[in-house]
Automatic annotation (TrEMBL):
Family of this protein: Belongs to the tRNA(His) guanylyltransferase family.
Residues holding Mg(2+) 1: 29-30, 76
PANTHER family: TRNA(HIS) GUANYLYLTRANSFERASE-RELATED
Annotated GTP binding sites: 29-34, 75-76
Protein name as catalogued: tRNA(His) guanylyltransferase
Organism of this sequence: Acyrthosiphon pisum (Pea aphid)
Gene designation: ACYPI006122
Lineage: Eukaryota, Metazoa, Ecdysozoa, Arthropoda, Hexapoda
Reaction(s) this enzyme catalyzes, per UniProt: a 5'-end ribonucleotide-tRNA(His) + GTP + ATP + H2O = a 5'-end phospho-guanosine-ribonucleotide-tRNA(His) + AMP + 2 diphosphate + H(+)
Length: 272
């Protein structure tokens, strides 16, 4: 590029590289999503189609950036975990955060009709973003445990809250008073006795959120190896998940997953 007398303005830019050897977490949150969900009449306490749209949008981010090794989502938020040895955009915070946010937001609009064919998108959604660095594997696991625990706490409350409204005819204020100061076991009891609902029978996608993982699989009919992204609704607080997907923390390449079933839900990565 030819130099000009105006090029000095580049000196106002500041260095914002993420610290080396740290896990990079980009978390997106829906901005003013209470209004957005009300305007589009999402089902309460959970709208499965809305959650699946979030998952598809997150998968689009993982399709674009191979260094996103895992993603976790619930409600109107998604966390993207970049390998701690990534050199994506020279680890520049602003570039990583803005690229992931823009791809996710654009995908949310792009795939809207796939999941809400009977609802018009009234106005574009928006998401805010932040980057947090975690220096150890345990820090990263604790972060994801925190988000999954938050999923359980919020969903249990919302399930009980809307159950009291829809099944018992309580007002919003009355439902809030019934649940005020209650612990998890008490909310479970209220749900069972007052609403006839066993919380453990609620769909795992509501109770546990969604974790997106990468797999290398054989896809028929060609049986060629393909890179896919699979949504799972499993516990990520205990050790089992991390033992099964040990390549995430160990920064290893994917190995062929022989337990994959072609009828499982997955997103094919076209840039394999």
């Amino acid at each position: 590029m030819a130099k000009s007398k105006y090029e000095y303005v580049r000196t106002f830019e500041f260095e914002d590289r993420c610290l080396q050897n740290c896990w990079i977490v980009v978390r997106l949150d829906g901005r003013s999503f209470h209004r957005f969900t009300s305007s589009h009449k999402f089902e309460k306490p959970n709208d499965k189609r809305a959650l699946e749209l979030m998952n598809r949008s997150a998968a689009a981010v993982m399709e674009e950036f191979r260094d996103v090794s895992l993603a976790y989502g619930q409600s109107d938020e998604y966390s993207f975990i970049l390998r701690k040895n990534t050199d994506l955009y020279n680890r520049r915070q602003s570039k990583i955060m803005s690229a992931i946010n823009s791809i996710f937001s654009a995908s949310y609009v792009y795939y809207w009709n796939t999941f809400f064919e009977d609802k018009k998108l009234l106005y574009p959604p928006s998401f805010d973003a932040r980057i947090v660095l975690y220096p150890t594997d345990q820090n990263l696991r604790d972060y994801l445990s925190w988000r999954q625990a938050d999923t359980h706490i919020n969903n249990l409350y919302n399930t009980a809250f809307w159950g009291l409204i829809s099944m018992k005819g309580l007002s919003n204020n009355e439902a809030e008073k019934v649940l005020s100061g209650t612990v998890s076991s008490e909310k479970n009891e209220i749900l069972f006795k007052e609403c006839g609902t066993n919380y453990n029978n609620e769909l795992p996608i509501y109770r546990k959120g969604t974790v997106l993982v990468r797999k290398l699989v054989n896809l028929p009919p060609s049986k060629s190896k393909k890179h896919v992204i699979c949504p799972l609704h499993v516990d990520i607080i205990g050790d089992s998940f991390w033992e099964e997907y040990n390549e995430i923390l160990n920064l290893k390449d994917l190995i062929l997953n022989k337990n994959f079933k072609p009828d499982d839900i997955f997103y094919l990565v076209k840039r394999s």
